[in-house]
Structures are given as structure tokens and as C-alpha cells.
Amino acid sequence: MTRQPTPSPWPATRMLCWREIIRFLRQRNRLIGALAQPIIFWLLFGTGLQKSFRLADQQGTPSFLEYYFPGTLMLILLFTAIFATISIIEDRKEGFLQGVLIAPVPRWSMVLGKVLGGALIATAQGVVFLLLGWLVGASSNVTALLVTVPLLFLTAVAMTSLGFVIAWRMDSTQGFHAIMNLALMPMWLLSGAFFPIPTLSGETAISQIGLHWVMRLNPLTYAVAGVRQHLFEVPLPESFWAPSLTLCWTVTACFAVGMFWGAWRISSRRIGGDLV
Amino acid sequence: MSTVTNRTTKTKGKSSPAMSPSAGPAIEAADISFSYGERAALKGVQFDVQPGEIFAILGPNGGGKSTLFRLLSTLIPLQTGILRIFGHVVPHEQLLARCCMGVVFQSPSLDRKLTVMENMRGQAALFGITGGKALQRCQELLEQFGLMDRASELAETLSGGQRRRVEIAKGMIHSPQLLLMDEPSTGLDPGVRRELAQTLEQLRRDNGVTIVMTTHLLEEAERADTLAILDQGRLVALDTPEALQKSVGGDVISIVCQDAQRMCVEIEREYQLSVAIVDGGLRMETSDGGELVGRMMRRFGDQVSSITVGRPTLEDVFVAKTGRRLD
């Protein structure tokens, strides 16, 4: 009796990744939603808060437009990654997913395809924004730009996987929006994207201590800090906490691997929603 | 068990592509039960599907057909019982089992934002078929299913019948020996249904594909080689449609009348027949319907609004086995 081998899982991964990208390019409104909104935020907040935002009373500290630049970059990644994984709910509803679920390939190849597709789209949008920033002078160093891209990609993998974990068990996109507002936006706000992390000293108020630790335990903080340190050589003043670059990369890499592992684990469990 | 002796015969197997690697049954299902929480959907279902046959699973909605389909397609995990697809044990050899079968779901699995060809190539990739080989196979299938001229159109622009054809073509991408279909005729108009029946017959004849389908349509069930009737989670009949029709008896007499209860009692007493009340009418089987109808008309003519006699249909089989109508 000759047994045929099971097919290689890589074509499935490649196909699902390619499908994400094709679908994204065919839906113009997603492109606009994920790129234009953060840019508008950046310009509005950046110029609006320019006068009232001061990191310290010293010269050479970044302006708010500069400070907020990495944060906007993260917001673009977050939006794109989330919109990419929200499609898993539609895939399930429209029936496409059931065909994938019974394919003779391991589950991780499906998750990898989906996550890679979303992460590549997000990274590409991030790069577009980086170039835009480079044009308006928010960052100048080309090497710094190039080093930032892999960090963006790792963050995108982490965010897409996180989106996958949330979306897998959902049966409506409305539920996803609730999670987005309750968990993902606060996660972004508390990542140092919008305001810096206070340091701890003897007279720090209790609320500031709480804020410090919440932000320090937020894995997204390290991605934001890493991007900031790559793009702007001027460090933040002493009165604000900042992790080392090595720590930024390590935490972001662990965040990506951990979230992907989570996405893979959760997708191996069957749920009622598999039945369309 | 007969399946065991079948499986040890190794003389077949190489002559036709339809033959399974193990030359045993295409599907062996033994003692399969499944429940959603408290609610039992399948209770000890047992059957074999032979290679190259069209096997229909007939039953009312909620009878357990869809659950059985999901189990066979490996979409949901087996709870109890044994399931082998061409000898591959589910779930341990699930990936191998999946390689042997193409699955056509009732709800569409096409990506509407992709073209027909992209959908096909996507499916090919899921089965590890890539590059020129994939392109060739996709073209072959689109040609076979008369869809070549729609290849570069988005799936959302296709008609219902065309979409179903793409679904089947998708299911056939890896030249499976078994095609598993859930209610393939749902949502299709009669003309397209006939077309679909021809397509399936052609697949069986030319490619030697074993076809297993669930259905609630009698006309579809009649075309099957073997018919399994599923009601309330139990397999109530398993045979060829002809044998099942014969098993009902010679003729079936149906009577529509005012007072079914009283008439039922009277007929049972008068003619020593077993009479069933189905949907307010009377129904009975007898060896010589024509003669009996004449006698009944003379005796009860004034109380009867209509009386018909006919050869048993699969509907009659269903009624005989379950005491209810199919829908």
C-alpha cells in the first residue's frame, strides 16, 4: 500500500498571505482608513499641542510633532493589523474559512499566512509614513530608517497575532470594535506614544507610580521607545523613563513570538463558529 | 464484520484511479454518536460507502445530516465511534484522509473578492499544488465545468449555479477519490439541478469518483446507488432506493377523509391492514391496491374526499420508517 505524503504547508501559507494583500489592495477604503486617519491625527495633535507640550525647560528636546511621530507610526500599525485580522470574522461568516480549516495542512500554516499578510501590509503602511516623515524632516538618517523597518515588522506581527487571538472567537465585527476601544486604544495611549513615561522618585504621586508601571509593563511601550530611539538621536530628558535599545528589541521580539504562539494555540481549538 | 474481509482483498487497487490505496470501502463509519452539549445529534450511526458509488444521506432538516457531513469532512472532531476514509483513521490520520476527499459545503466557500481563477489557485495551494501544475489543473477543471470564460471575473459576479460549479471544481482540484457534498442542490433552480446531476454522474463515470451527498430532495435521493435515511439522529434505513421502495410493500393507498380516526379503526378492522394517520390522512400498504380501492369505495365512498393508489415512492419509505412525512 503506497501512502501519498501530505502536501507541503508552505504554499498554503504563501497563498493566504498573498490573499490578504490582494484583498487589501482591492479595498481602497481600508487603505485610506488605516493611513489617512493617523496622519490627520498626527498633524492636528502635533500642531495643536505644539505650544502646550513641553518635555523640559531645555533646548534640543523634541517638539510634539517629533515626539508624536513614532506614536503615529504605531497607530498606523495598530489600525492596519486590526483591520487585517478583523477579516477572519468575515472569512468565517462568508464560508471561506471552512474550506481552509479542512485543508490537509497544519493549523500553524493558516495562522502564519494570515498574520504574515496582515503584518506585511501594516509594515508597508508604516514605511510609507516613515518616508513621509523623512520628507517633512521628522527624521533624517537613512540608516536609522532602514533599521526601524524590521522593528516595525516585529511589532506588526505582534499586533496582527493579537488581533487574530481576539477575532478568532468572535462572531461579529461589532464585538471587535468594543475590544478595540476598551483594550487596544488604551494600550496604545499607555505606550508612551502620546505622552512620556514618568520616572519614579521619592516624591512621585501614587497615580504617577501606577502610570509608570502600567506603561512599563505594556509591551507596546518598547516598540514605541525603540522606534523613537532609532529615529531621533536626541534622548528624552532625564525626568522621563526610557528602556535601552536592546531591551526594546528583546521585548518586541518576545511579544511577536508570544502573540503568534497564542494565535496558533487558539486556532487549534474548535469552536461553535466553525460551523457556518 | 464484512468490512474486515473486504479490506484484506488486495487484488484490486491498481486498475483504476478510483480505487483507494487500501481497496476497502471509501468510508467506514461505525457506531458514530455526536452531541452538542445535552442534545444528541447522532446516535450510533453505522454504514460503509463503497468506492465509485453515489451515496445519498436523506433526512429532514435537523435529522443529523449536517452533523454527519461535518464529521465526515473532519470539520468537527469525532466524539465516539470509528471513522475511516479510504482506510485512514480519523482523527489520527486526518491530514491523509483530507487528501483523499474534496468537500463541497452548502454555504459558499468562495472568496467573493477574488476571481474564479484566483479562487481555484488558492484552493490548489491549500493542497500543495503550485506553479504550472496548478495552472494546468485549474484550466482543466474550469474547462470541464464550462467556466473558462468566467475565469478572470470576480466570484461575486457569478450566478448561483455557476458558483456551485466553481465550488465543485474547487473540491476536485487535487483529483480526490471522494467528493463529499452538503445539500448540493440547495438554492438551484430545476434546470441547474439537472445539470448538476449530469456533472456528478460524469465525474463518477469518467473519473471514478465516489460521491457522498446529503439531501432532503427525493429526486436527488432516487438517483443514488445507496441511500441512507437519517431521522432524529438514527439511521433508519440503508439500501438501494429500489430495494427500499420494494420493502414498503406492493401498493400504497392514501385516503383523505373527514374523520380519519374513526375511518382508521374501521379499515383496520374490516381489512386487517395496518393503517397510519399521516398529516390528517390515512396511509396503508397492501399487495393489491387496485382491487382494495374498489372495495373501499363501495363501502366508504360517501365519507371519502379522495383516494389514491400508487407504487411506493421514497416518501412512502420515509413515512413507513419514521411515521412522518419528510418535510
Summarize the structure.
Chain A is mainly alpha-helical. Helix content of chain A is 73%, strand content 1%.
Describe the protein in words.
The complex is a heterodimer of chains A (276) and B (327). Helix content of chain A is 73%, strand content 1%. Chain A contains 10 helices and 2 strands, in the order H-H-H-H-H-H-H-E-H-H-E-H. Chain A starts with 9 loop residues before the first helix and ends in an 8-residue tail after the last helix. Chain B is of the alpha/beta class and 327 residues long. Chain B folds into 2 domains: 2-244, P-loop containing nucleotide triphosphate hydrolases (Rossmann fold), CATH 3.40.50; 250-311, 2-Layer Sandwich (Alpha-Beta Plaits). Helices cover 38% and strands 26% of the residues of chain B. In chain B, the strands form 3 sheets. Chain B has a 6-stranded mixed beta sheet, sandwiched between helices. In chain B, strands 2-1-4-5 form a 4-stranded antiparallel beta sheet, covered by helices on one side. A 4-stranded antiparallel beta sheet of chain B has the order 12-13-11-14, with helices on one face. In chain B, a hairpin with a 2-residue loop joins strand 9 and strand 10. The longest helix of chain B is centred in the middle third of the chain and has 18 residues, at 190-207. The radius of gyration of chain B is 23 Å and the shape is elongated. The interface between A and B is medium-sized, with 33 and 35 residues.
